[in-house]
Amino acid sequence: MHPLVSRFSSKAAASVAACALGFAGLATMAMPTAAHAQASVLLKSQQATAIVESVDREARELLLREGNGHLLTIEYGAAVKDVPHLHEGDELKIQFVETLGAQLAPPGSPLPESTLTTARGFVHGHPRGIIAAFNRERALIKTIDLPSSTISFTTEGDDSLHVAVLRTKAMQDFLKTLKIGDVVDITRAESITYIVTNKTVPQPAPAAPQLAAPAGDVVAPAPAQ
Question: Considering its fold, how many domains does the chain have in total?
Answer without folding.
Answer: 1
